[in-house]
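S1.2 Input.
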Amino acid sequence: MWTDFVVRRVFGYKGERLRDFFDQLELDHVIPKLLLYIYEIGACENVVWVVADEFRKMHSLETKIEIEPEQQMHRHLRIQAVKDINEQRVRELVNLFDERLSMAVSVEWSGQNTMAWPILSVKDQSVLAYVFMTGVKKTDVPRLQNRIGRDLSFMCKHIGFSIQHWHVQRLSFLDDLTGLYNQKYLALVLENEILRSQRNDSKFSVLFMDIDYFKMVNDTRGHWVGSHLLVEIGRGIKQNLRKSDYAFRYGGDEFVAVLPGTTAEGAMVAAERLRRSIETTDFVIDGQHLKLTMSLGLASFPDHAKTHKDIIKMADEAMYCGKNKSRNIVFVAS
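S1.3 Output.
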């Protein structure tokens, strides 16, 4: 009722399509509705959403910036469009505009007009995200600047709440002990990487890791030492991965790493680096020195599996094959 009243009061009956925009907080629902709404108003070629951190990362002045996975949204939340658009095209689009963009701007790109709006936080006027329209008719630019600018200013508070809601959800994806991602988030990451690999005709790899004889540590040194060891192991795994990789505590003393854009050959190098790192580390917990080894299973998409469940299964089975063979080994799925 309140939404109906506000929409009609501010936008009149022409704005009734905005009502659905406020039904949910999840960005998975908010972003597509926002883009489709603007697309219908603008009758343009495409509408693209780019979250602020990704805009800065892709901007020509800061192309070397790497954002920790924990600090960024999933790709489909960071970059989204009404029509399919590849990352190179998005980068070209981003670089048309200054990152200090604070109001609607129109430029010519590929012989057509392209418009950009920053979505500003109601609280402190910081930029939350950017919305781009491509293929805009020149005669429509003034009208769209006023209409969409007004609409976005009305939507900004709800978009801000949605982003805050995502950050709260993100906390539920972290393992309480190690601070790595948990198994709950793994399926989402794998599904996203499968979509990206299919779109870009690329590959990614998964490492399934298990600490050798870890039960013996808990039985002889106690669970307090075991828990602190898991924290140190998790830290070591993360330090030996790229910032663009994902590290998970799968459960107990099992860990998983997802390596985007990495073939089996490249993942083998990373896996051996992780194995050697654990093998050569002198773990000191409360004055106790411990030496450990780790067994790893490796599987790649799409070489070894075609679904997120199967690629985990293949990496897990490869790890157990390695354990049955010798332990302290990297074993590749077949």
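S1.4 Remarks. Residues 141-171 form the longest helix (31 residues).
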